[in-house]
Recover the amino acids of this structure.
């Protein structure tokens, strides 16, 4: 493990820690702006968290490579200001137990994280610092409104998107959205940056996946509403990974979306809707939001699941989507809905299987949105798609990829020999409706 060494800070001036997590930037960074106001030296750090990394299956995980590349840029950005980023590898509690014991360390600044693991982690670290008589400050940064800010008149969380979005937009109109300016200079308690090699933390660089640029594609946003559903067009922003790791500011994106694309702004609101749901209903990472679905008669066919994962279902749009995911770490949003519907309805396989596969493969994986969208597609989530809505993959292809441009890009072998259908649409649809019928009474009783 690569942990801080006490001797490196024995003669340090008083300093505060700026702990980067989902905010790998120095521009418009809430916690950093407040840390600067402390008028103390600042030690920026990032921790490759063993509690998370040890669960990853792929040693060339694209997200680890993305983070590593972003940390290199972050380190250079700090050096231009006179600061020196320190990157550690270990368990956050171990790292901060060391820092809390250091006399020069006066406190910790960071930005809020709303996932269940992060909430528990931060609560324990705050306790360590407070017991040591040091400060712990956490700020809203990755959202416009944190989970408790958009509630019903009764003070309850919304479980339907439309009223949530109306309240969100009304509240946005009533506030002044502020972007934080970049500090001119910061002082540092040490005089050298540290970034371990990927191999030192047990990973290797992923050279197969290209990362999207860290800039807002204004041309895409200008035509977002009309083009976003067609996977063969460059109609989506592909900014998900930059939102996930905070290499771009949500406030900057909202400012641009307000003037460029209402449709894209609503996608950002969906993101916060799902974060709010995960905050209030953390059990949904494993269990359905609608409890009636705990009795849903899912099948457990590993063979069918493997065919879906490998893009060998016989449905060109489904298979192209899965192959795009496996090859690039990305899947077009419209296609994500189609493949999720196919897994949970045509194949009657558990939504959790698909959610976990996406969690492993997606470069832009974000827990709240992944869980929320999978439960929406399966019909078991908050504000979910009606259970009787079962996408016909062939009609979806005719509508959104009529000339087969997207399919040919990822399923060129279909031109020679197309795999047989794993199940016909009519058979899959009929089987799914019968399965839903089996829990219909339960759904009524729990509504």
């Amino acid at each position: 493990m690569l942990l801080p060494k006490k001797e490196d800070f024995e003669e340090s001036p008083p300093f505060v820690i700026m702990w980067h997590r989902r905010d790998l930037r120095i521009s418009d960074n809430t916690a950093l702006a407040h840390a600067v106001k402390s008028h103390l030296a600042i030690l920026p750090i990032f921790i490759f968290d063993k509690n998370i990394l040890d669960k990853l299956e792929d040693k060339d995980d694209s997200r680890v490579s993305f983070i590593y590349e972003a940390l290199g840029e972050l380190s250079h950005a700090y050096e231009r200001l006179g600061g020196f980023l320190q990157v550690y590898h270990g368990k956050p509690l171990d790292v901060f137990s060391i820092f809390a014991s250091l006399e020069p360390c006066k406190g910790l600044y960071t930005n809020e994280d709303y996932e269940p693991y992060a909430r528990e982690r931060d609560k324990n670290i705050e306790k360590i610092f407070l017991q040591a008589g040091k400060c712990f400050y956490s700020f809203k940064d990755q959202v416009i409104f944190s989970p408790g800010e958009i509630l019903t008149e009764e003070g309850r969380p919304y479980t339907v998107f439309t009223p949530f979005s109306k309240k969100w937009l009304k509240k946005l109109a009533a506030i002044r959205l502020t972007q934080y300016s970049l500090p001119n200079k910061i002082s540092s308690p040490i005089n050298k940056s540290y970034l371990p090699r990927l191999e030192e933390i047990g990973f290797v660089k992923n050279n197969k996946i290209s990362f999207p640029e860290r800039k807002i594609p204004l041309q895409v946003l200008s035509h977002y509403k009309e083009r976003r559903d067609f996977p063969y067009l460059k109609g989506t922003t592909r900014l998900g990974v930059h939102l996930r790791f905070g290499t771009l500011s949500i406030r900057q994106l909202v400012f641009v979306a307000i003037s460029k694309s209402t449709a894209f702004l609503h996608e950002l609101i969906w993101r916060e809707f799902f974060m709010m749901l995960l905050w209030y209903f953390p059990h949904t990472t494993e269990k359905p939001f609608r409890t009636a679905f705990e009795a849903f008669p899912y099948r457990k066919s590993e063979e069918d699941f493997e065919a879906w994962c490998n893009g060998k279902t016989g449905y060109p749009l489904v298979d192209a989507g899965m192959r795009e995911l496996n090859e690039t770490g990305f899947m077009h949003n419209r296609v994500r809905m189609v493949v999720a519907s196919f897994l949970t309805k045509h194949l009657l396989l558990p939504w959790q299987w698909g959610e976990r596969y996406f969690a492993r493969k997606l470069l832009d994986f974000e827990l709240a949105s992944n869980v929320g969208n999978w439960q929406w597609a399966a019909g078991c989530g908050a504000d979910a798609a009606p259970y009787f809505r079962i996408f016909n993959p062939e009609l979806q292809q005719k509508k959104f990829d009529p000339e087969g441009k997207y399919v040919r890009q990822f399923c060129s072998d279909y031109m020679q020999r197309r795999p047989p259908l794993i199940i016909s649409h009519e058979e899959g649809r009929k089987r799914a409706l019968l399965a839903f019928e089996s829990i219909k009474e339960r759904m009524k009783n729990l509504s």
Summary: The domain at 1-141 is CATH 3.40.50.620 (Rossmann fold).
